[in-house]
Amino acid sequence: MMSISKGEIMKALVYHGERNIAWEEHPDPKILQPTDVIVKIDTTTICGTDLHIWKGDMPEVEDGRILGHEGVGTIIEVGEGVKNWKVGDRAILSCVSACGECEYCKKGLTSHCMNPEGAKGLGWIFGYMIDGTQAEKVRVPFADTSLYRIPDGVSDEQGCMVSDILPTGYEIGIRDGGVKEGDTIAVIGAGPVGLAAMMTSALHGAKRVIAIDFDDNRLENAKAKFGATHSVNAGDEDWFEQVMALTEGGLGVDVACEAVGVPVTLQNCFKIVRPGGQVANIGVHGAPVEIAMNKYWIQNIRMSMGLVNAVEGERLLQGITDGKFKAENLVTHHFDMNDMMDAYETFRNAKETKAMKVIITQK
Ligand SMILES: [Zn+2]
Ligand SMILES: [Zn+2]
């Protein structure tokens, strides 16, 4: 029997099929390609996508896969083809592994990177097609084009929000939504991703940010900590009139962001957007959505949607250092890495625990 000597074993959060994950021993990652680095994870977190995998919604994930696609860490080994990084450097890991050379990467559409590491045409492979970041160590492919330096004054906790949640809200909601200086925007859904869109709208100078949700606590939170200037409870009978009254000339919002992923919220975005405005869908949908094109075709409404490219990290980090928004406000809980299973439990029961982002630290 081959024995594995000490120093070659780490702890990791391993997926073993539907509703079966464990914090267990796992062989250390190794450099496989010259463009790889090995990172010791200092800080990581859990994403809603990890819960989808746990639930068995993504059966393509193999038994034995280490989950996680967000984190901050220290480089402990460098492949011979890596130019920009050395041992001891600290970095933010992007949720998208971008080869930097394919047609999609060159266009900034890294979410469709044709890299040979996993599913061709999908840039998100961490904790999905290859082992991820919820571990003591992780192999990072394409290190030169998939890591960010941590600017002075940015904490690990803030940096961790730049792996996935902030780029998702910002790139798909605000940037691709075409938010401009002085705009009135609405974000339907005041969960973590909706809040990320609200807070990063400051980068584009949105004048009014209307948070729409069913939960008054979430709405208050959106106004207190995430840059919403107004809120409307979607359960109010006159919610629509309330929103329209907040817009210029009562014509509707310039940009309506959908951050839930169910049909009615996307349909409501079309209701509240003004002629010439834009609907930006951030939510992950599980069913077809009927849009009343017979009503809307004449309105010159644009619509955008997509998977995060995570190419705006520098800009988001600048926003953090400039004090435009407080990324750390997304964090609700802290755990030691050895309490990974507790972190999952807390995140999974977000309704009761009010968890948004849980920060997991390796000492
Ligand atoms: Zn994620
Ligand atoms: Zn690529």
UniProtKB/TrEMBL annotation:
Keywords: Metal-binding, Oxidoreductase, Zinc. Belongs to the zinc-containing alcohol dehydrogenase family. It is an enzyme of class 1 (oxidoreductase). The lineage of its organism: Bacteria, Bacillati, Actinomycetota, Actinomycetes, Actinomycetales. This is Alcohol dehydrogenase. InterPro entries: ADH-like_C, ADH-like_N, ADH_Zn_CS, ER, GroES-like_sf, NAD(P)-bd_dom_sf. Gene3D superfamilies: Medium-chain alcohol dehydrogenases, catalytic domain (3.90.180.10), NAD(P)-binding Rossmann-like Domain (3.40.50.720). GO terms for molecular function: oxidoreductase activity. The keyword Protein biosynthesis does not apply. Its EC number is 1.1.1.-. Its cofactor is Zn(2+). The keyword Lyase does not apply. CDD domains: FDH_like_ADH2 (cd08286). It comes from Arcanobacterium wilhelmae. Residues 17-360 form the Enoyl reductase (ER) domain.
